[in-house]
Structure formats: structure tokens, C-alpha cells
């Protein structure tokens, strides 16, 4: 529809991973038709006799050998596409098998495989050895029988990214074996995805013991637990000394000396949901100065009952002392003169800041409306004086308020800088006067976006404004 050269350039890229697009695959018959058109006449006749609806034969050949560009298989989406041919479970099983065989035959190599809910042992297909030995990324779940992973472990030994959904909370020795044989495992992600209830057997132990042995190569660890095994994590985390990314929903250390053993000289991303300010400060102090993102859930700080004022002051100090390259930061502090002074120093040191999430009080700090607005005004003045040129996004958590006059003065003085996106959890900015002011500065390009969202969206640095 554009020109031949454009088409020949783009089609191979689109078909490298045809499952990754935000479309309704069930209603995309042409994808089913393209795959089915590659089946041999003998296979087509067999499937039609079984009552499977295949597209009518066209005399016009396909413009491209589309499947030869493919480097990935997504089982769930493939099953959705297969359902176009028949609603019967047995017929779908037959069609799945033929489609998998076809991809194994046509794809020169497979780089990505998502086998959640798979029913076919694809490693037994004739071309499986050649295709699967190049696999770089695997997504799977723990409902798959161990024997399936034994089969993959025989072939796939250079997986770099392994993502596991724990849907059946019991040990899976096949996954342990698959991890054991890997020679270049850099990225590991584990997500508990089962009904939260009593777990009779520990599903993590054998798998995480194998992860310990990958300490020399593993640099990305992402864990989401429903049942946290404290002793296991206290053993595992200190050994993974080459981590560049640590993302975990909970970190519990009852001994600060053990916490101080978490030394990550290459750490670039630190994202932890449940952690105290004091614990976060210790990890940041022991990082190697490469941190680009520190994203901590402020909800816990808001209800934090420790020595909030002192520890938040230390936290700010640890950031500008140890994170000169920081780009994304969630920061919590008391609205005192000392905290504002340290915050301004942080802005002057951390010149790479792009996105800043600010929490300035917790439930134990009682402020009047007047003092809240005064603190907000002071904060905006500091941002005008010292905000780094790269700053593009501000997030204000919970009861963070600015008067109409202070906000207008801030936006007027921001004029001439890069457009600013602002996210707040306070509905005060949805009032008529605030909306008129915001729209005024949207129209002249000072503000790119200004939205009021739930506190969950505000605190989630991955939520895009």
C-alpha cells in the first residue's frame, strides 16, 4: 500500500514476532488463512475430513513466505487462532499439532517461546533440535509436567531470559533441571499466580538453589511472591553479586548485618514494594554508583511508624551521595527546613533525573491546610531554582497540595523548559479554576499532561502519563 521496497523491508520485521500486537486474534481470519495456506494438500484433506474449516484454495500465491520470517511461537495466541478452524477440542488438538509442526519446519530458528498451557511435546518434532537450540527467551508456567522441561533441557541450554508463572504451588523438578543446564542465563523472573492459600510444599527451594549457581552470569532478578520464604531469600540475594536489576515485591531482613551483605556494584534498577526507608538506604549505600532507577512503594512510607523524619533525611543523603546517574526516583521526606535543603542539594547533584515521585508526609504527621499549602509552595520554588534540565515528569502522592497562585507562578516560571507531565492523586486539581489554569498552560506547551489518578497508578513508575 506504500511501495514495494517499503513492503519488503517491513514484512520480515512484522512477522518476526506476529503474536505481540494489541489485536483481537480470534477475529483476524487472515492470520489463520496465511498459516493454513502453508499446509500440504494431504494434511489439508485430512483436516477437512475431520470437519475442520480451512480457507478455500486461492489461485493467487502469497506475496511472501511469511512463516520463514518468524522467530517466535506463543502457544496461547496460536490456540486462539486455531479456534477459528473448529470449536471442537479434538479438532483443535489436531490443528494445533499441524500448525506447530509447520512452524518448526518453516522457521529457520526460534528465539522466543511462550509455552504456557501447552499440550504438545514439540521437542519431538523432526526439526525441533535445530530450531530450539537457538532459543533465547522462554515463558512457561508450573502446571506443565516436569517431563516436558526435561525434554527442553536436553536441547535448550543457552536461554538468556526465563520467565516462570507459578500457577501450581508445588515443586517442579523439571524447571530446576532446565535452570541447571543453562550456560548463559542472564534474566530470571518468577511470578506467583495462584489462589493465595496454604502451601503444603515449598515450590521455590530447588529452583532458587540452582539460581545460586548462576551468580556469575545472572544480572536481572524479578520476583513476585504470595508466600515469602525469608530464609531462602536471605541465602540467595547476597550471592547474586552481579545483579544490575533487582525487582521484588517484598524484602524482609531481621538483621541489618545480613542486609549489609547485599553488595551490588553493578546495580542499575532497584524496585521493591515492601521495604523500610532504613533498609533501602543500606542497599543504596552498598551499590556501585550506577543506579538509574530507585522505585519504592510510597504507600508503606505513608503508614510507616518508625523514625520517619530522621530516616527519610538519611535516605535523601544516600541518594545524592551514591546515585549521581539516577533517572527515576521515588522520594519520601518530612516537610522540614532540613529536608527541603537536602532535597535541593539532591536536585543539583542528580542532573540526570527524568521522573520524580514525591511523598512529603505520613499518617503520623499532622498538618493544617495552611501548612500543607505553604510546604507545597516551598517545594515548587525549589524545583524552579534547582530542577535538572532533564526532568520531564513529576508525581505527587496522596495529600500533596498547591494553591492556585503557587501553581500558576511555578508554571509561568517553567516556561521555556521542556514540557512537563504531572500526575497527582489529589482530586483538588479537577476543580474548575485548576482545570482552567492547567488547560491554559497545556495550550502554550508548558504542560504536556496533567492527570489525577489513583494512588496505585501514581506510585507505579511504569504507569505512563
Automatic annotation (TrEMBL):
Organism: Rhizophagus irregularis (strain DAOM 197198w) (Glomus intraradices)
SUPFAM superfamilies, A to Z: RNI-like (SSF52047)
UniProt xrefs under InterPro entries: LRR_dom_sf (IPR032675)
Name of the protein: F-box domain-containing protein
Amino acid at each position: 500500500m506504500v511501495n514495494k521496497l517499503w513492503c519488503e523491508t517491513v514484512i520480515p520485521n512484522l512477522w518476526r514476532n506476529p503474536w505481540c500486537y494489541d489485536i483481537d486474534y480470534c477475529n483476524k481470519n487472515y492470520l489463520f488463512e496465511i498459516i493454513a495456506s502453508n499446509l500440504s494438500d494431504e494434511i489439508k484433506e485430512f483436516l477437512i475430513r475431520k470437519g475442520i474449516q480451512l480457507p478455500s484454495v486461492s489461485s493467487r500465491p502469497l506475496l511472501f513466505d511469511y512463516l520463514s520470517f518468524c522467530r517466535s511461537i506463543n502457544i496461547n495466541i496460536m490456540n486462539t487462532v486455531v479456534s477459528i478452524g473448529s470449536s471442537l477440542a479434538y479438532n483443535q488438538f489436531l490443528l494445533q499439532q499441524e500448525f506447530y509442526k509447520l512452524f518448526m519446519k518453516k522457521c529457520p530458528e526460534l528465539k522466543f517461546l511462550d509455552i504456557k498451557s501447552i499440550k504438545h511435546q514439540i521437542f519431538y518434532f523432526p526439526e525441533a533440535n535445530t530450531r530450539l537450540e537457538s532459543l533465547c527467551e522462554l515463558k512457561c508456567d508450573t502446571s506443565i509436567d516436569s517431563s516436558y522441561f526435561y525434554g527442553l533441557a536436553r536441547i535448550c541450554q543457552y536461554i538468556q531470559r526465563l520467565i516462570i508463572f507459578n500457577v501450581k504451588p508445588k515443586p517442579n523438578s523439571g524447571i530446576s533441571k532446565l535452570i541447571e543446564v543453562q550456560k548463559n542465563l542472564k534474566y530470571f523472573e518468577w511470578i506467583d499466580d495462584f489462589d493465595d492459600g496454604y502451601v503444603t510444599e515449598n515450590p521455590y527451594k530447588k529452583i532458587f538453589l540452582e539460581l545460586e549457581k548462576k551468580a556469575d552470569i545472572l544480572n536481572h532478578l524479578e520476583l513476585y511472591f504470595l508466600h515469602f520464604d525469608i530464609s531462602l531469600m536471605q541465602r540467595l540475594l547476597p550471592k547474586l553479586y552481579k545483579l544490575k536489576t533487582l525487582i521484588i515485591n517484598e524484602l524482609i531482613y531481621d538483621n541489618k548485618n545480613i542486609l549489609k551483605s547485599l553488595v551490588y556494584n553493578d546495580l542499575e534498577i532497584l524496585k521493591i514494594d515492601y521495604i523500610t526507608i532504613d533498609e533501602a538506604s543500606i542497599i543504596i549505600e552498598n551499590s556501585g554508583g550506577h543506579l538509574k532507577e530507585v522505585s519504592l512503594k510510597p504507600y508503606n512510607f505513608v503508614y510507616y511508624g518508625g523514625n520517619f523524619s530522621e530516616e527519610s533525611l538519611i535516605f535523601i543523603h544516600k541518594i545524592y551521595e551514591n546515585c549521581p546517574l539516577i533517572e527515576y526516583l521515588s522520594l519520601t521526606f518530612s516537610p522540614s527546613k532540613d529536608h527541603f535543603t537536602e532535597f535541593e542539594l539532591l536536585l543539583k547533584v542528580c542532573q540526570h533525573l527524568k521522573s520524580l515521585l514525591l511523598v512529603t508526609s505520613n499518617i503520623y504527621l499532622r498538618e493544617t491546610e495552611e501548612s500543607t499549602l505553604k510546604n507545597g509552595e516551598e517545594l515548587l520554588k525549589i524545583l524552579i531554582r534547582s530542577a535538572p534540565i532533564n526532568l520531564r515528569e513529576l508525581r505527587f502522592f496522596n495529600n500533596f497540595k498547591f494553591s492556585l497562585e503557587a501553581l500558576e507562578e511555578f508554571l509561568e516560571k517553567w516556561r521555556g523548559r521542556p514540557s512537563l507531565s504531572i500526575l497527582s492523586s489529589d482530586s483538588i486539581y479537577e476543580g474548575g479554576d485548576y482545570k482552567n489554569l492547567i488547560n491554559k498552560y497545556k495550550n502554550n506547551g508548558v504542560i504536556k499532561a496533567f492527570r489525577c489518578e489513583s494512588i496505585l497508578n501514581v506510585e507505579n513508575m511504569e504507569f505512563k502519563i
